[in-house]
Amino acid sequence: MSKPAAAATSRATLEDIISAVQKYNPEADLDCIRKAYVFCSNVHKGQKRVSGDPFLIHPLQVAMILSEMRMDTVSIAAGFLHDTVEDTLVSVDEIRSVFGEEIATLVDAITKLSKINFSSREKREAENYRKMFLAMAKDIRVIIVKLADRLHNMRTLQYLPEHKQIKVAQETLNIYAPIAGRLGMQEMKIELENLAFATTKPDVWERIERQVEQLKKHSSKFMDKINDIVKRKLVEFGIKADVSCRVKHQYSIYKKMEEQKVEFDQIHDLIAFRVIVDSVKECYECLGIIHSIWKPVHGRFKDFISMPKTNNYQSLHTTVIIEGGHRIEFQIRTRAMHAMAEWGVASHWKYKTGKEVEPKDEIKFRWLRQFMELQKELSDPAEYLDTVRIDLFASEVYVFTPQGQLRELPRGSSPVDFAYAIHTDVGNQCVGARVNGKIVPLRYILRNGDTIEILTSPNHKPSKDWLKFVQTSKARSKIRQYVRIEQRQRSHDLGQDLLEKEFDKYGEKFGHYVKSGAFDQYFHKVGMKDMDQMLALIGYGRLNVTSIVEALIPAEKRKKQLPHHESAISKIFKRAKEKSKGVVRVAGLDDIMVSFGKCCNPIPGDRIMGFITRGRGITVHTLDCPRMLTTDPVRRVEVQWDKMATSMRPARIRVVAVDKTGILSEISQAIASMGINISQANCRSVEDNKAINTFDVLISDISHLFELIKNLEKIRNVISVERVKG
């Protein structure tokens, strides 16, 4: 069975693009499109793609994708020109002189976006994200053209070496598909996800694809029957509608199987019908008609017309039970809503008229504006990256304030998330919550339609434990900020205590040196900001009090040292150097005691960071470890895996499989065949005829673990395999 990434794509011509544009915009500047094509073909003349095809095919296909999205002529021209500055001798100034300021600005922004490398180190990666979202905020067409470029590259991915295919596909799943979803470009998101999924997990994709094809084959008559019933009933009520049926796409099925730990045939909403009508009034009439034919499933109705999603998606969703007890989902929307659902902001009228967005349309871009505001407050790269992941991948839940105002939060949010969404002070002082008039725990998971009232106390402070359940980036950011301030104050106090005791050893008064201005001269000499910074660094263990005393107390006075008592900080570093793990190097040294965080259990190949702990040397965490993100950046140190060291590290994997005789033996044999030792195993049967097996194994590095996961996923009755951290 061929993968979607390897499927041949139809090759568009200039006339195909011109014809498509004329259909949706008869007044379009077609000469601009033709000129961009001619310019592009001249500057790319003689260039080839990796496939051996003329390079011109790529910008042609990108421009065709943009015309299928019904984009404006400026975007389509930019689609033709998007690689000219990067891959030829053409400059932005030359583009500007030939095509004008608007197209030149767009091409320049796309060029800068193309140079972003998302696989770089943490600080550069965070900065790359900032650049991309800044470009989006200035002109959303930049990312739309980039998405079209990425889509065609994904369609022709098979010509790249395998390791590059996987890298590009993973980047697509992590970055570009979520952005397409956030912009409401559902068709783009689905195709990007399926192409990337087929590349990153080909065996799993092929298995699900076979099951989807079998479902379509066996359900075709059944789907036609449902279609006819709905059409006839709507005609009876004088409603003109387009009714179609589709099966959930492969990556969506895979995600649901992973999240719910179920098999393909245990998913209830694989088939969905879409009903497209002319007006909002007919949407609700159609809903009533469908409910009169089949019984609706309680709790499965969603009104996204009166409460649109963040990306402005609007539709009525309902699930009904038909003959045989099967569940079928219906999505009901107008034609305008359907255009928005398919292509999101790309279908927005702003780019068809060239006018500015009116206030009533600002809601369509509110999420991006709010994201830009929040990122101004985040200077720590690790925390910023965590925020990006939360904001891009979040699905929504809709709740109300006591005054009836609608608030949209990520699914799984708590009253604490809601409190911070209202105001930072409300979140910081939150002591309890009432949901629908009843007191609930702060860990309560909010549901659609809940009305939340937050109870506050002016003396209350945020709890570090809240980080275990909050979902919104704002709540995480504000809680971490408070925790870091608290940690810094404790370190400041400890630092002052240690320094005062060191001065006391020589019969000197710390306060005297402060008043004399001696410390100001010291700060200037060593390039330190002030007393607070110095004391905090001492408390964190990053600054030795001995060096400060030697710089400030004259040598003759130091000779009069009182009976020696080893300082607390000296004891810490003495213990820290007693033992080294050898696998990790700290700032080029290998004589520091190193331990690994049990919360994330890093293994060689993971991106890691060290954290100074009092009495335990350096504790190593993965960069995305939630506990690391709560720490003060001042206490973090750069660490790296020692490539010369050969050592096995423990890792834990969870394998969910069909509970049948012999499955445990198959899994164990697959692990043993790779020469991997199982140090501990835990197996238990659960409902729905499934078995959850947890294995602690000894592996050499992250690639070794990925290879193991890939091999286990090939076993016939294995549902999912995942690494467990902590």
Based on the model shown, name its key terms.
726 residues, 16% strand, 4-stranded mixed beta sheet, Hypothetical protein af1432, 5 domains, alpha+beta, Beta Polymerase, domain 2
Question: Mind explaining what this structure looks like?
Answer:
This protein is an alpha+beta fold. The chain folds into five domains: 4-200, Hypothetical protein af1432; 204-347, Beta Polymerase, domain 2 (2-Layer Sandwich); 480-575, no CATH class; 577-641, no CATH class; 649-724, Alpha-Beta Plaits. Helices cover 49% and strands 16% of the residues. It contains 30 helices and 21 strands. Strands 1, 2, 3, 4, 5 and 6 form a six-stranded mixed β-sheet that branches. Strand 5 (316-321) and strand 6 form a beta hairpin. The chain is globular. The two termini are 38 Å apart. Residues 349-361 and 576-581 have low confidence and may be disordered.
What is the total tally of β strands?
Answer: 21
Number of domains: 5
User: What is the CATH level 1 assignment of the largest domain?
Assistant: Mainly Alpha
Unreliable spans are 349-361, 576-581
| Overall geometry | globular
What structural class do you assign from the helix and strand content? alpha+beta
CATH topology of the largest domain: Hypothetical protein af1432
Query: How much helical structure, as a percent, in the residues?
Result: 40-55%
Summarize the structure.
The protein has 726 residues and is an alpha+beta fold.
How is the topology of this model organized?
Elements: H1 14-24, H2 30-43, H3 57-68, H4 73-81, H5 84-87, H6 92-99, H7 101-114, H8 122-138, H9 141-155, H10 162-182, H11 186-200, H12 202-236, E1 242-247, H13 250-260, E2 271-277, H14 280-293, E3 295-296, E4 302-303, E5 316-321, E6 327-334, H15 335-343, H16 350-353, H17 366-375, H18 381-393, E7 396-400, E8 406-410, H19 415-422, H20 424-428, E9 430-435, E10 438-440, E11 452-456, H21 473-505, H22 510-516, H23 518-526, H24 531-540, H25 545-552, H26 555-558, H27 568-576, E12 584-586, E13 594-596, E14 608-613, E15 617-622, H28 626-629, E16 636-637, E17 639-641, E18 649-658, H29 663-672, E19 677-686, E20 690-699, H30 702-713, E21 718-724
Parallel strand pairs: 2-6, 13-15
Antiparallel strand pairs: 1-2, 3-5, 4-5, 5-6, 7-8, 9-10, 9-11, 12-17, 14-15, 14-16, 18-20, 18-21, 19-20
Helix pairs in contact: 1-2, 1-3, 2-4, 3-4, 3-9, 4-7, 4-9, 6-7, 7-9, 8-17, 8-18, 9-10, 9-11, 10-11, 11-12, 12-13, 18-21, 21-24
